[in-house]
Design brief:
- The protein has 68 residues and is α+β, with helices and mostly antiparallel strands.
- Helices cover 44% and strands 19% of the residues.
- It has two helices and two strands; from the N terminus they run ββαα.
- It has a two-stranded antiparallel ribbon.
């Protein structure tokens, strides 16, 4: 893979002695991240009608009610 001087900002995803360093273009990473979030929202909306009845209840509230 060519390693020339890049003009865009880079985001370091991994910087570990045993694994090496993984850099990605920051703009491309956030574009991908936002796309993935939108796809997940679409998927949740698509399958909500067939989800288990209690799948959408507020789990945080349920956890608080069991702490006594």
């Amino acid at each position: 893979m060519p390693q020339g001087k890049s003009t865009g900002r880079k985001l370091v995803l991994v910087d570990h002695a045993g694994l090496g360093r993984v850099n990605v273009d920051m703009e491309a990473f956030f574009e991908f991240s936002f796309w993935m979030a939108e796809e997940l929202e679409d998927l949740v909306a698509k399958w909500a009608p067939v989800a288990a009845p209690n799948a959408s209840r507020n789990k945080e509230r349920d956890l608080d009610s069991t702490r006594s």
